[in-house]
Amino acid sequence: MNRIERLASGLDDALLVTGLVNVRYLTGLESSNAAVLVEPDANATLYTDFRYAEAAADIDGVTFHRTPRAVVPALAELLSGRRIAVEASHLSLASADTLREGGVALVSTTGVVEALRAIKEPGELDAMRRAAAISDRVYEELAEQPFVGRTEAELAWWLEQAWHEAGADGPSFDAIVAFGENGARPHAKLRDVPIPEGTLVVVDAGCSVDGYASDCTRTFFTGQPEGRLREIYDLCLQAQLDALAAIHPGASGRDVDAASRVAIEAAGMGEKYGHGLGHGVGLDVHEEPNMRPESDAVLAVGNVVTVEPGIYLAGDVGVRIEDMVVVTEDGCERLTSVTKEPVVVG
Ligand code: ZN
Ligand code: ZN
């Protein structure tokens, strides 16, 4: 079964897919203005405007219907009198109003296409392996770069160029480079401040290959890996290894998250690890399934997730170590495999 057939096999009502990444997943069309209607019998109609018409007309397995620039008012007319399931996370309230006013009865759904996307096909895994291999190479090159005296922004720019030079399409998200107290902010903003000796530098970055993202974090030492910086580094690494060991098909996101907290809580630092363990990755950097304390996701073979515990000492330093892994029959396989031994940079 292809993706549209798999989606259709679970549908009661026709589903109007308006999430653009979901449209891309189902049809291959990359567009800023498109929707696809999938009927329970697996007939699918792709709606987009003139700018994407040529690409849309070339797609096999879907009927192309050209609309004016405003797709939703056109759909309101075309679907008038029907009952249609919509993606509540990807349809604005204004668009829902337009459809209802046109006489379309809406059924709210969430996460239907996302659930398919969470299980990667071999071709998707291949793209993610290539992205991860480029990530490994770029992190190895990064470790040879001078850090001390350069700014976070300079290193982020170095990374941006390195992705292109290594053959990626580009970065999958804006890189985080954060030393000292900035590293204690999980989503730190880049600063133009020179990196000093004797601190930790968190680097969280990824690239995109054929639309698929990589996501990896390493924390570097600009000084000897000893003392309290080494202690929190080792603690974070232990948490990460404990989480990797807990991953298997059938494990809940909640349980794997809990496994990552044991060592950090035993060290009295539970409060310093304030975010979830990890997230799914694919066409989006953040997708299903999630592993966090309130997660009800259950891991399955073919999920690609990140494993990224962190310890954040506000006003002082932070450490995070992140790998991207694929869930396998007997556990998981790391896709990012650059060393997690403490790395000293100059
Ligand atoms: Zn990351
Ligand atoms: Zn991540």
Task: Describe this structure as you would to a colleague.
With 346 residues, this protein is an alpha+beta fold. Helix content is 32%, strand content 23%. The chain has helices at 3-9, 20-27, 53-57, 71-78, 93-101, 112-117, 122-143, 152-165, 227-246, 253-259, 262-266, and strands spanning 14-17, 34-38, 44-48, 63-66, 83-87, 105-109, 170-171, 176-179, 200-205, 207-209, 212-213, 216-221, 278-280, 287-291, 304-307, 310-313, 317-320, 323-328, 331-334. A six-stranded mixed β-sheet has the order 4-3-2-1-5-6, with helices on both faces. Strand 18 and strand 19 form a beta hairpin. The N and C termini lie far apart (53 Å). The mean pLDDT is 97.
DSSP summary, beta strand count: 19
**Structural shape:** elongated
Say what the CATH topology of the largest domain is. Answer: Creatine Amidinohydrolase
Bound chemical compounds: zinc ion
**Helix and strand run:** HEHEEHEHEHEHHHEEEEEEHHHEEEEEEE
Percent strand equals 15-25%
Distance between the termini: 53 Å
Largest sheet: 6 strands, mixed
Rg, Cα atoms, Å: 22 Å
Task: Characterize this entry briefly.
Helices cover 32% and strands 23% of the residues.
List the helices and strands and how they pair.
Elements: H1 3-9, E1 14-17, H2 20-27, E2 34-38, E3 44-48, H3 53-57, E4 63-66, H4 71-78, E5 83-87, H5 93-101, E6 105-109, H6 112-117, H7 122-143, H8 152-165, E7 170-171, E8 176-179, E9 200-205, E10 207-209, E11 212-213, E12 216-221, H9 227-246, H10 253-259, H11 262-266, E13 278-280, E14 287-291, E15 304-307, E16 310-313, E17 317-320, E18 323-328, E19 331-334
Parallel strand pairs: 1-5, 3-4, 5-6
Antiparallel strand pairs: 1-2, 2-3, 7-10, 8-9, 9-12, 10-11, 13-14, 15-18, 16-17, 18-19
Helix pairs in contact: 4-5, 9-10
The chain binds zinc ion (2 copies).
